[in-house]
Design a protein that fits this description.
heterodimer, A: alpha+beta, four-stranded antiparallel beta sheet, elongated, B: alpha+beta, three-stranded antiparallel beta sheet, 8 helices, 27 strands, zinc (chain B), ubl conjugation pathway (chain B), Parkin (chain B), IBR_dom (chain B), zinc-finger (chain B)
Chain lengths: 148, 415
């Protein structure tokens, strides 16, 4: 099946106007598969880390959301040990008007947690408060060990 | 009179499909008849009429609903065993086609500053050959003989009383279905200054075709092209997607794909007619299932190949006959009908191992299975959306986030 024009447009735009702190490279043999590198946001425990992710656009895209996974190990309350991300817009809150760019920005924002303005990050903020020192220490250690 | 043809239409044809025997019965009904009149004509005076997931009261007059365009109802027999859901269609849907020359339209606007935003309409004859809707031609009533006149040109609102509600297909002399959500991109100013010729789903430019307009607080917010709307509608209806599907007093409707605002009065299910009967029927089934999901006395046929849903007088004891497949089952244990007192626990002849792995939404009790992912569940039942925890089966809380989010539960996870 031919690649939809929308995917071609999105890919071109991602390369001509990249999101700050994020690189997205389409796979040479599969234009629906992207290698993503997210730089750990400043003032977060992930600072100075380079996190590798994979992003796949399923056949039903944009009706169905992209599939995204962290390849680099990361200590984060919303990312599990297999790299799966608990993010509403990647599941039931997906809308076809969203795009790769908005997904990547949301993931970047998730790393910048705690953010009291974000309802999802609100939980994170509280979680972080309970074990704050230990949690941040571990997150920093993991960043240095796996994402340097 | 060359431009205006005369047509008298006081009665409309209604076709009734009886599922018991697959027979179609055609009835003629008055335009101003009430729901009760229809039920009497269908010889089902105690039945209930459901439209877009909302039950109509017996006193509702049909012409008040969709201004005598096309109706499609699900007719409910009274609650009792062995009755069948029937579909009533009335009257035949009609559509219009061919583009209105934009220059002519431009002149109309110039000479008639009150001319309303142009409406697009469809007619069933036309939709068979092409899928591009055309502007609606108004239908007006002669003040002397009360018959209908068809105008082949759009008219100014100062000449036509309520032109958006009365129009006719000039090709087929039939009522049109007006789709208020269709507009020309040039005639729309979007909130926030977005481009009205850019489809918010495929991101492509639209110049000549009508676009589907969504509204937020009564003002246009986003637009989509027709092919994208079709895909969006089909996907949302098939997957029962919330927040794409929204519910309010007008029934189940498709929300804006970008900001999820509900189009409210501008949305009519007839827009789905543009894409054929299949998607429209899917919508009818989905909205009716939504209605049923809110009824306490609903039952699902336990036979695996059937699964039909219907209403019963009571779920207590006895033998129930599925109105669709005639499977007879025990109301107590859900097994095939048997003699004597039933002491078995309720069961289901679907895969029992699968049932054992299911857990229920703490709010609406809809069973869920978990295939993969974290333990943060969102109920997929129509319009429930409750967030709950797979581990403790309670509403999702900070406690769950701390202790249960990533826990693996091998006993319940389906591979």
């Amino acid at each position: 099946m031919a690649l939809p024009r929308r995917i071609i447009k999105e890919t071109q735009k991602l390369q001509s106007e990249p999101v700050s702190g994020i690189t997205a490279t389409p796979d040479e043999s599969n234009a629906r598969y992207f290698k993503i590198v997210v730089v750990g946001p400043q003032d977060s425990p992930y600072e100075n880390g380079n996190f590798n992710l994979e992003l796949f656009l399923p056949e039903e895209y944009p009706m169905a959301p992209p599939k995204v996974r962290f390849m680099t190990k990361i200590y984060h309350p919303n990312i599990d040990k297999l790299g799966r991300i608990c993010l509403d817009i990647l599941k039931d809150k997906w809308s076809p008007a969203l795009q790769i760019r908005t997904v990547l920005l949301s993931i970047q924002a998730l790393l910048s947690a705690p953010n009291p303005d974000d309802p999802l990050a609100n939980d994170v903020a509280q979680l972080w408060k309970q074990n704050e020192a230990q949690a941040i220490r571990t997150a920093k250690e993991w960043t240095a060990q796996y994402a340097a | 009179m060359d431009e205006e043809r005369k047509l008298v239409r006081e009665r409309v044809l209604c076709s009734l499909l009886k599922k018991e025997n697959g027979k179609r019965i055609d009835l003629e009904i008055e335009r101003n008849c009430s729901v009760k009149d229809i039920l009497d004509l269908c010889q089902a005076p105690d039945s209930r009429l459901i439209l877009t997931g909302v039950e109509l009261t017996p006193t509702t007059v049909l012409s008040d609903l969709f201004s005598l365009e096309h109706f499609e109802f699900i007719l409910f027999p009274p609650e009792s065993r062995g009755h069948i859901l029937s579909t009533v269609k009335l009257p035949c849907p009609v559509l219009i086609f061919k583009y209105l020359n934009s220059i002519v339209f431009g002149k109309s606007v110039e000479h008639h500053p009150h001319f309303p935003e142009i409406n697009f309409a469809i007619c069933k004859e036309c939709v068979k050959t092409t899928r591009s809707p055309t502007p609606a031609y108004p239908k007006i009533t002669c003040s002397q003989c009360q018959s209908y006149l068809i105008s082949s040109k759009p008219r100014c609102s100062c000449e036509v009383p309520n032109p958006s509600k009365n129009s006719i297909c000039t090709e087929h002399d039939r009522d049109q279905i007006i789709i208020p959500q269709l507009r020309l991109p040039e005639n729309i100013r979007l909130q926030g200054g977005g481009s009205s010729n850019l489809c918010c789903i495929c991101f492509d430019e639209i110049r000549l075709e009508p676009v589907v307009v969504f509204q937020k607080s009564g003002l246009p917010c986003h637009v989509t092209c027709l092919p994208c709307y079709e895909r969006y509608a089909e996907h949302s209806i098939k997957e029962r997607k919330s927040p794409a599907l929204s519910f309010n007093s007008s029934g189940v409707m498709l929300a804006c794909p970008a900001c999820h605002s509900v189009p409210d009065k501008t949305w009519k299910p007839q827009i789905l007619r543009l894409f054929g009967d299949e998607i429209y029927d899917l919508y009818g089934t989905m909205s009716t299932e939504f209605f049923l999901s809110k009824q306490e006395n609903r039952l699902f046929c336990p036979k695996q190949s059937c699964g039909s849903v219907f209403l019963v007088e009571t779920k207590e004891g006895g033998i129930i006959t599925c109105p669709v497949c005639y499977y007879q089952f025990c109301a107590n244990c859900n097994e095939e009908a048997h003699q004597g007192e039933c002491s078995n626990a309720p069961s289901n002849d679907n895969s029992k191992s699968l049932i054992a792995k299911m857990k229920k939404c703490p709010d609406c009790q809809t069973p869920a299975e978990k295939i993969s992912g974290c333990n943060h569940m969102t109920c997929q039942a129509p319009f429930c959306d409750t967030e709950w925890c797979w581990i403790c089966c309670r509403v999702w809380s900070l406690q769950c986030q701390l202790e249960h989010w990533g826990l693996h539960d091998p006993g319940t996870e389906i591979d």
